[in-house]
Amino acid sequence: MGIKKQVFFYCLLCLVWSCAQKTLSSTSTNKTSTNQDNSLHILCYNIHHANPPSKPGIIDLEAIAKVIREQTPDLVALQEVDVNTIRSGKTSNQAADLARLSGMPYYYFAKAIDYEGGEYGVAILSRFPMEDMKNTNLPTAEGTGGEHRTLATAVILLPQGKKILFASTHLDAQRGDTNRLLQINKIAEILQQEKLPVVIAGDLNAMPSSPVINHLDKFFKRSCLVNCGHTVPVLNPYRTIDFVAYTPADKFTVTEHKIIDEKYASDHLPVKVVLSVK
Question: Model's pTM, two decimal places?
């Protein structure tokens, strides 16, 4: 075969190979895109105002952000978030800072109480656009000494025109279920009225066998019901008090539920859940 023919066939082979690679790449990209459209990666994390338990008085936002980045979530429900407080820094909005540090384009902070010259509450981080964000105060019985709590909600604009309501909350930590029952009842009352599918995540300060979680289960389906793993304390955990739940049950399928074994950044272990949105 002459040199010109060899060059011709070599060029033809390169062209065929290039086209094949582009086709495979396109197929792979479309598959990934479809998975992303149908799968919703959720992280529920009580961040202890970014104070590692082993380092009293130290704020380490980067440690929290690293946990979030490593889990590549679409939505994050945060609890115990400080905004412009003395203990965490008067110029630090932890919700905004964590959104920036973890690469989440959208965030919403909902104040529960005033604290040390700033605010303290819960937050939502989102990879997708949000709208209609709301902060709803939850009830606390008089004389119980309970801390006021709140429910943060946002409509999440998912790919392909889908929408869900995402909620983050943190129920009262008092001994006894008085305030927690009032609060979970109020949450159910509010979210029952929602026409969109709902996902709620938070630190409920209640064990799975408690009246609080029994009431939750009347209106929502939890992402895990048995052998779910414990979330507190981070060293030798023995209690499960952080949950992800959803409604209606036929709008979602749980494809993954796991507890992230991260013992430094917070006094809670984060919960990672992957839902398939129907």
Answer: 0.87
